[in-house]
Specification:
Strand content: 5-15%
Largest sheet: 8 strands, mixed
Distance between the termini: 69 Å
Strand order of the largest sheet: 7-6-5-8-9-11-10-12
Radius of gyration: 27 Å
Order of helices and strands: HHHHHHHHEEEEEHEHEHEHEHEEHHEH
CATH superfamily of the largest domain: Vaccinia Virus protein VP39
CATH topology of the largest domain: Rossmann fold
Structural class: alpha/beta
Shape: elongated
Length: 525
């Protein structure tokens, strides 16, 4: 091997490192369209990728000793790159089966599909793991320089991995999508491998020239279309991939609805043919009840401002505008692409709505405004970001609430597992004198309402009975239903702080218990 060929090995290991981490980050988005972006999914992706790389390192060292030939090395590189580019096409049928299991609440099929998906990464990632130890073996001429060569190889490979960490998430996926990100990164390594092999023996290299042709054909004919098919009876209106979410807007009957990531939860709903119709029957409606936990008389005129952390496509601010008038509403949403979808498909253009594209906690900390109502609905199902669940966060909200202000937050549960409700009740109770729990019918959600003043559930009915005839018709209905769905506020739950907030662990346990129990029907009521 010439000195030029040895130096080119650094280009190969750099590109291989880039593809290895690029696959891991792209895998999270590919799987996230059906399986979500929970900690469990991430743990499986990271753990199995590391397992495959470990196997590759071990096999690579053994293979390099048994067949220390540059031709063998480049065959490994080419097959690793080629098999990585096959993942999106091979994943399509598995994802379609898994998507059906999500909407049918079939946990067994979902878990099986996830296993199959992870197996798809075994071959390419293992082959990529072989590259670095094999390259080191080829580059070493004198044992006295082995340490320096090994260090440079792994340093350059790691630099490639660093770029592979940021490039897909910040540039490629938002720009060209998940499928083409797989194809582009694997195609890059194919080109590098073919070039290196061609320098060594161009005739043997031509035997593998068909690989990029197959990739191109797959990109043209097999990959177009949605990453996750919409359920039967729905029409896809919009699909996008942002730096934060996989976004779909679909038409379901007379409503436009917003799906994110795995599509199990509806994040916003709007009736474009009936723009004044705001009753959804879902979680959003119950945010309207929050201010009426205050002692009577508390009328719609007493609600003069509102903030919504987790704006999504603006369902709650739209409801508040119709019920309480054009009061100032600050809608805080971290994903600008969701905001754009809200404007394009959910008529999110209320003049009184001020959209703030930031993390919810940061935006509140930077604000000096005071609100009568603060709503929090910042799910990446089934998880609430932990930093939006702590005593310190709720203290920050308390500082932004008026004298009769209220906080309403959406929390997940099942019939038998209410540990999150217990923890949130205990944590909110450290900041607010009264906490109320409303179970949203036919969902896995409860709305917890915490009030600055001491309050009782009966205030809902008392305030309902004081409503005038000119009130928006949905409001008395919501107050009645909310009162009927109030559950006893639990005691003794874990108090969550910035130092210790096991929100994700409790959610993990909720999900695992659901799966272990069979998970073949909706676990809520």
């Amino acid at each position: 091997m010439s000195e030029k060929q040895r130096r080119y090995l650094y280009v190969v290991v750099f590109t291989s490192g880039l593809l290895s981490l690029g696959l891991e980050l792209s895998a999270s988005r590919l799987l996230g369209t059906v399986f979500g972006t929970s900690n469990i999914v991430w743990a499986n992706i990271i753990g199995l990728i590391l397992l495959y790389l470990t196997a590759g390192y071990f096999i690579g060292g053994r293979l390099a000793d048994r067949s220390p030939y540059v031709e063998t090395f480049y065959r490994v590189v080419l097959w690793g790159a080629f098999s990585a580019g096959l993942i999106p096409a091979l994943a399509r049928p598995v994802l379609r089966v898994a998507a059906g299991s999500v909407f049918n609440i079939n946990a067994a099929v979902l878990v099986g599909s996830f296993g199959v998906m992870m197996i798809l990464f075994a071959v390419p990632v293992t082959l990529l793991g072989i590259v670095s130890p094999f390259a080191i073996r080829l580059a070493i001429e004198d044992a006295s320089g082995a340490g320096g060569i090994s260090g440079r190889m792994y340093a350059i490979s790691t630099i490639g991995s660093i770029i592979g960490t940021f490039l897909p998430v910040l540039v490629l996926i938002p720009t060209i999508g998940t499928n083409l990100t797989f194809m582009l990164l694997s195609g890059l390594l194919l080109v590098v491998g073919l070039t290196g092999y061609g320098v060594v023996d161009w005739k043997k290299m031509l035997r593998y020239a068909w690989m990029p042709v197959v990739h191109i054909l797959l990109a043209i004919f097999a990959l177009p279309g949605t990453l996750r098919p919409v359920p039967e009876g729905m029409i896809l209106l919009h699909e996008d991939e942002s730096a934060y979410n996989y976004i779909q807007v679909v038409r379901w009957g007379e409503a436009n609805i917003l799906f994110l990531n795995e599509g199990q939860g509806i994040h916003s709903m709007y009736f474009p043919d009936y723009p004044d119709y705001i009753e959804t029957g879902g979680t959003w409606d119950y945010y309207l009840a929050a201010p009426f936990f205050n002692a009577p008389p508390h009328t719609p005129a007493d609600v003069t401002s509102m903030a919504m952390v987790g704006l999504a496509a603006g369902t709650v601010p739209k409801q508040y505008t119709q019920v309480f008038g054009p009061i100032p509403v600050d809608g805080i949403e971290i994903d600008p692409d969701i905001v754009q979808a809200g404007r394009d498909y959910f008529d999110m253009d209320e003049p009184n709505l001020n959209v703030i594209v930031q993390d919810g906690r940061y935006a509140l900390a930077a604000s000096d405004k005071t609100y009568d109502v603060v709503g929090v609905d910042a799910y990446r199902l089934p998880y609430i970001p932990w930093h939006l669940t702590t005593v310190e966060f709720f203290q920050e909200i308390r500082e932004h609430l008026s004298e009769r202000g209220v906080l309403a937050i959406n929390v997940g549960r099942t019939v038998d597992d209410r540990r999150l409700i217990e923890a949130f009740s205990a944590t909110l109770g450290q900041v607010f004198p009264s906490v109320h729990v409303i179970d949203v019918p036919h969902t896995c959600n409860s709305i917890l309402v915490a009030t600055v003043q001491p309050t009782v559930p009966e205030n809902l009915i008392a305030n309902r009975d004081l409503l005038g005839a000119d009130v928006q018709p949905v409001l008395p209905k919501v107050l009645t239903t909310a009162y009927e769905q109030i559950r006893p506020t639990p005691t003794g739950g874990r108090i969550m702080t910035d130092d210790r907030a096991p929100t994700e662990l409790m959610t993990d346990l909720l999900v695992v218990n659901f799966v272990l129990s069979g998970g073949n029907e909706l676990p809520c009521q």
